Hints:
Blueprint: H1 3-13, H2 24-46, H3 58-84, H4 105-120, H5 124-152, H6 154-162
Helix pairs in contact: 2-5, 3-4, 4-5, 5-6
Amino acid sequence: MTHKQKQKKALQERDDLTGEHTVGDTGQMIIACLFTAIWISDTFFFKYTTFLNQYVPNRFRTPCGIILLVLSGYLAKTGLSIVFGEEREKPGVIRKGVFGVIRHPIYLSEILLYLGFLMLSISLAAAVMWIIAIVFLHSISRYEERLLLARFGKEYEQYMREVPMWIPRLWKK
Length: 173
């Protein structure tokens, strides 16, 4: 059983999890495959839209790309382990760890993953897929927030006021 299948099974069996958009996983997989295919083919073979690489030095792009990839991995690992790693006795809004800094760290990790690869090799064709991914992830995040608002009401409203959706605050409100 794959990791995603285990997550889906856990979601169905656990009362402490709220739910996901029905096309969320499929859409993410399609976008990931398209981004990967476009980035690899444009970066290593066709090089149609990679001309910006000559203007942005490798000594800048490589460290930035690596930092973004590491941050992406951290957000994905910690976010997934908080949501699926432990069953909560009483369902509630998760404010623990990275969820106390941003509301959607797992989706943000996906956005940063693509951006990390774009920093390693700037492909405008792949950047279009990155923008499509951002729009898609934002829309499924909004859908899932409506589910959470319906389930947790004022508690989730308060969480939305205190914790930004995508970009962490450098200062407390």
